[in-house]
């Protein structure tokens, strides 16, 4: 928070609570998970603003050091920001937020609720400014309940599909609370008229990218994991749901550069035939304050809209590193972290597969690594000689080859090299065959391709030097 000290993980609260992890933050407040539930930590200026406006009574907030105050929820009660979450989950939390929203609007008139905070012990929300609303209440509440997606709460189809605990009955109760009606597109869908104009259900199956069983050449353990923990759960969804197992949760792949993490996920995406999105510096990075967290939200919202889909977080330590740093940009990093902490647990509910990739897991914030965010962590090493034999045969299976090629000999030469190097050797051998007017790839061409690869890397002979020396 700006101008005051930041609370610390593990800090004790009056009453015996303890701060565990920050899940949302702005300049004048933070929402933390605690041993009991949640805590709202605020600056004295914000508490004074709420007190002057008559929003809070004296004694509601307790001191947390010299500059800050806090209020803690009881067990299982939610504290939530309309802008940053945590997202209300289940019918009780949804209706509690909605009732506070409706009460606040009737009591305070046109004050903006787009950044308001829900505190369960109050009948109303806590606005953070005196500015008037700049958007409709239906859109503000819809964005809050759906975790940042630009969908009005009146859109029953998307709200019931995207919001955990939003049944048709709960949605009808929510609309009745405000006196709102379903949107026109929803009446078309529900009444059964002009059905071709209705949006496709989010649970509709995409056409499988491949009719053959999933195979991941050279990575037996990864193949088994994808088959058992992801593909089988998707294909037999109803059976798994009966046993309390829902859509596959996020998976973290850990391993050195070139070990095949990206290669493996790309093969899975091809097999499933689902749209995929990549979170990296190019897709969500920005030099503007607060812009990165907005881009993160937009990318995940698009993935949810196109679900079932896959999101890949490449080099995720760049976004989810430990928050204990003290640099001037720390508060903005916490904002980006809070956006991920808010969104990641929601992805399985919206049928989005998430894969994180890193080669430095020790740099990732511990709040991300716990169960419920990344359910599985797999270590992916460089391929063994046996795995390389399988990979080479797969890469050359559609290429005419001479008989008697010793794939084991090739594998020994390529041991401990990135998978991209193996693919290069297969392609370069094919290129040499065309150049030399040969109708098959032979072992000699594969070995020459190996020589060329190692020559480029400066192995076995001096590198060529260009320029003055």
Written account of the structure:
With 469 residues, the protein is α/β, with parallel strands linked by helices. 40% of the residues lie in helices and 12% in strands. The chain has 18 helices and 12 strands. The protein has helices at 44-52, 91-108, 137-146, 156-162, 168-178, 184-191, 220-235, 237-242, 261-272, 281-284, 291-305, 317-320, 330-343, 366-369, 385-395, 407-413, 419-435, 443-456; strands spanning 19-26, 29-34, 38-43, 62-64, 68-72, 80-81, 117-118, 251-254, 276-279, 309-313, 352-358, 376-379. The chain has a 5-stranded antiparallel beta sheet with strand order 1-2-3-5-4. It has a 5-stranded parallel beta sheet with strand order 9-10-11-8-12, sandwiched between helices. Helix 2 packs parallel to helix 5, helix 11 (291-305) packs parallel to helix 13 (330-343) and helix 17 (419-435) packs across helix 18. It is elongated. It starts with 18 loop residues before the first strand and ends in a 13-residue tail after the last helix. Residues 184-207, 286-290, 325-333 and 461-469 have low confidence and may be disordered.
SSE diagram, text form:
Layout: E1 19-26, E2 29-34, E3 38-43, H1 44-52, E4 62-64, E5 68-72, E6 80-81, H2 91-108, E7 117-118, H3 137-146, H4 156-162, H5 168-178, H6 184-191, H7 220-235, H8 237-242, E8 251-254, H9 261-272, E9 276-279, H10 281-284, H11 291-305, E10 309-313, H12 317-320, H13 330-343, E11 352-358, H14 366-369, E12 376-379, H15 385-395, H16 407-413, H17 419-435, H18 443-456
Parallel strand pairs: 8-11, 8-12, 9-10, 10-11
Antiparallel strand pairs: 1-2, 2-3, 3-5, 4-5, 6-7
């Amino acid at each position: 928070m700006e101008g005051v000290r930041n609370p610390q993980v593990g800090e004790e609260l009056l009453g015996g609570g303890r701060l565990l992890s920050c899940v949302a933050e702005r300049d004048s407040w933070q929402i933390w998970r605690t041993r009991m539930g949640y805590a709202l930590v605020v600056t004295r200026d914000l508490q004074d603003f709420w007190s002057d406006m008559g929003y809070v009574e004296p004694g509601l907030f307790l001191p947390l050091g010299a500059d800050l105050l806090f209020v803690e929820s009881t067990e299982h009660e939610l504290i939530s920001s309309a802008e940053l979450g945590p997202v209300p989950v289940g019918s009780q939390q949804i209706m509690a937020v909605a009732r506070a929203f409706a009460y606040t609007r009737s009591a305070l008139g046109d004050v903006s609720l787009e950044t308001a905070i829900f505190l369960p012990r109050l009948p109303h929300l806590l606005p953070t400014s005196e500015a008037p609303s700049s958007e409709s209440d239906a859109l503000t509440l819809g964005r809050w309940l759906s975790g940042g997606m630009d969908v009005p709460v009146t859109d029953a189809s998307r709200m019931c599909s995207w919001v955990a605990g939003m049944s048709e009955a709960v949605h009808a109760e929510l609309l009745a609370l405000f006196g709102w009606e379903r949107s026109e597109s929803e009446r078309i869908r529900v009444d059964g008229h002009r059905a071709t104009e209705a949006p496709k259900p989010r649970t509709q199956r995409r056409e499988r990218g491949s009719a053959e069983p999933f195979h991941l050449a050279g990575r037996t353990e990864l193949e088994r994991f994808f088959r058992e923990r992801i593909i089988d759960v998707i294909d037999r969804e109803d059976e798994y749901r009966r046993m309390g197992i829902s859509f596959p949760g996020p998976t973290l792949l850990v391993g050195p550069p070139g070990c095949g993490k990206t290669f493996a996920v790309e093969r899975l995406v091809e097999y499933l035939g689902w749209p995929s999105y990549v979170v990296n510096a190019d897709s969500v990075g920005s030099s503007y304050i607060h812009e990165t967290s907005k881009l993160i939200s937009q990318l995940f919202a698009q993935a949810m809209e196109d679900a079932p889909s896959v999101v890949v977080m490449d080099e995720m330590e760049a976004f989810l590193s430990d928050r204990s740093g003290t640099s001037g940009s720390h508060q903005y990093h916490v904002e980006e972290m809070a956006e991920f902490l808010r969104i990641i647990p929601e992805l399985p509910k919206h049928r989005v597969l998430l894969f994180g990739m890193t080669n430095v897991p020790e740099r990732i914030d511990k709040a991300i690594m716990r169960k419920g965010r990344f359910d599985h962590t797999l270590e992916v090493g460089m391929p063994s000689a046996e795995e390389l034999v399988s990979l080479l045969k797969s890469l050359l299976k559609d290429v005419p080859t001479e008989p008697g090629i010793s794939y084991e000999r090739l594998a020994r030469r390529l041991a401990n090299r990135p998978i991209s190097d193996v693919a290069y050797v297969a392609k370069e051998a094919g290129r040499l065959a065309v150049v030399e007017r040969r109708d098959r790839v032979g072992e000699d061409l594969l070995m020459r391709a190996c020589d060329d690869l190692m020559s480029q890397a400066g192995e076995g002979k001096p590198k060529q030097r260009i320029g003055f020396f």
